[in-house]
Every structure is written in structure tokens, then in C-alpha cells.
Amino acid sequence: MSTRLNWLRAGVLGANDGIISTAGLVVGVAGTTTSRSSLLAAGVAGLLAGSLSMAAGEYVSVSSQRDSERAALDTERRELAEDPEAELDELTGLLAARGLSRDVAREAAVQLSERDALRAHARVELGIEPDELANPWHAALASLVAFTVGALLPLLAILLPGPDQRVPVTFGAVLVALVVCGQVSSRLGGAPSARAVVRNVAGGALAMTVTYAVGRLLDVAGA
Length: 223
Description:
This protein has helices at residues 2-30, 36-82, 84-97, 102-126, 136-159, 166-189, 193-222. With 223 residues, the protein is an all-alpha fold.
């Protein structure tokens, strides 16, 4: 359940990034032109660049995490082979630190070690589940899909309405989507939703306002 929640939370945050970054881009371009083809080109370019960047970044990050986990497991495996008694004492101490009496902690350490010493140390000492190491390809794909889904909303919102309604419709659609993302992410994290929603909406509104204002200034300067 914890793993699924983490993936879901990452997906929501990826979609949130896609919404805000793409909205800022297309609204900024809308401040300089009413050409639908220009808006489409900018939006698609931003979507592709953002989703691929997110996927690459997540792949590198999770690959580094996986390498660190494997290195920690290799170290633990070597220590268990070289000095099993010291490792048993260490596991006993870790279990005792969690509230067990020394005798019970020792008995638990012995039984866990007899069953699978590496798994016991990985879970208790390292906080790692050996059979469920992070998968960089899954993380990259999830980030790519989440960002793309989020980015499609402002892209469609800026393209479908007429020139006079594009910016207001995009602002409205994006702010509603950010409210939903803020509520979902806060609930997944067990945090108060009101504060998360306000931060999310304020950040998105600021990004669109600034980029639109810059677009208008550039349009006036180039006129």
C-alpha cells in the first residue's frame, strides 16, 4: 500500500508540473500572438520537452537510489559472511531500540536471522525491501505519462476557444485542475487540504500571470 501511495503521489505531482509549466508557456505565447498554429507548436514543444525531461530526471534519480540500495545490501551481505555474531548483536540492539526487551529482542533476532538474515537486516537496519527495489523504468514511464496528461489540459484549453476567450478559459481550467491536484496530493500525504490547495493555486496563477504579462510586454515592444 505504501509503495502504491508513493507512486500515486508522484503521478499527481508530475501531472501538477505538467499543468503549471505548460499553462505558463502557452499563456505567455498567447500574450504575443493569436495564431493557433503558433500556440500549438509552443504547447506541443513544451509538452514533449517537459515530459521527456521529467522521465529522464526520474530515471537518473531512481537509478541512483537503486544503486545505493544494492550497494548497501552488498555491504550487509559481506558483513554477515565475515562476522555473523556481531551482526546478530547489532540486529538485537536495533530491535531493542524499537521497544522490545533485551531477551525478546535477542530471540526475535535469532529467529529472523535463521529464516533470512540478509532480509532481516535489510528491513530493520536499512529500511529496504530486497525484493522490491525501486525500478527506474517504471518511475520514468510514470513521470512521462503523468506530465503528459497534465500538460494536455492547458494545451486544449488554449487551442479550442476563440482568440478572445483563450486566456480566460485557460486560467479557469488550470485553476480548477490545480485545486483538484492540491486536494488529492494533500490527502495522499495526510496533510490539511486547504493550505495545499492555496499554495498550488497561488503558484499556478502567479506563473500564468507573469508569463502572460511578459508576453504582452514583448508583443508591445516588438510592435
